[in-house]
Amino acid sequence: MKINSAEFVISNSDVAKCPKEFLPEYAFIGRSNVGKSSLINMITGHKSLAKTSGKPGKTQLINHFKINGNWFLVDLPGYGYARVSKKTKSVFQQFITDYFEKRQQLVCGFVLIDIRHEPQKIDLEFMEWLGESEIPFCIIFTKADKIGKTKIASHVAEYRKQMLLNHWEEMPQHFITSSENGFGKDELLAYIDGLNQD
Ligand code: GTP
Ligand code: MG
User: Fold this and answer.
1) How many angstroms is it from 128 CA to the middle of ligand 2?
2) Which residue, of 9, 65, 141, 196, is most buried by count of CB atoms within 10 Å of its CB?
3) Average pLDDT over residues 61-79
4) Contacts 24+ apart (CB under 8 A), 169-175
């Protein structure tokens, strides 16, 4: 799929105020700093459509971007950032979980995971919650430019092992990406295109 247009529509912290249009929607979620906003810019080919930062906690709201006039990409705040106050943190978590539970247009959530790290409890727990809530999701491993191919393969294998230990029957559909060099873009867009056709 070719991206012909990508426009920012609205930011808010209330799922009830998200766009009313019933278009297929895909949301990026994951730990702060994992590269959610950068990946939106990479796949749309717009350098600064979504705001990014070297410091975690940059995205604080639900951000809707309309793509090709007929589907939405959603950038969400990260979870697991210790330096936001407890109160702010619980607000983040409430509206993030509200978003996933209530947004009927959501076709698939993409859980972003930094390919460099060992499986983290918070990500496994979040995926467990998605599974229990019957919310469809895929995994996107990010920052693949930061490690070599052999390590990428062994880190993905480690993830698979951890998920099977966590009672998953199989590893969810997953993608390997780099917003630095564009790796994984075509595969991810082709997958979304397939879901848009269903
Ligand atoms: P929050 O909004 O704070 O939750 O973060 P985020 O997940 O949106 O991360 P963001 O896209 O702002 O990126 C965080 C940092 O990681 C930035 O310094 C990016 O340049 C860097 N980054 C993101 N993706 C990649 C990648 O694929 N490769 C490399 N090398 N750096 C990346
Ligand atoms: Mg962000």
Assistant:
1) 22
2) 141
3) 96
4) 171/139, 172/127, 172/137, 172/138, 172/139, 173/138, 173/139, 174/138, 174/139, 174/140, 174/141, 175/138, 175/139, 175/140, 175/141
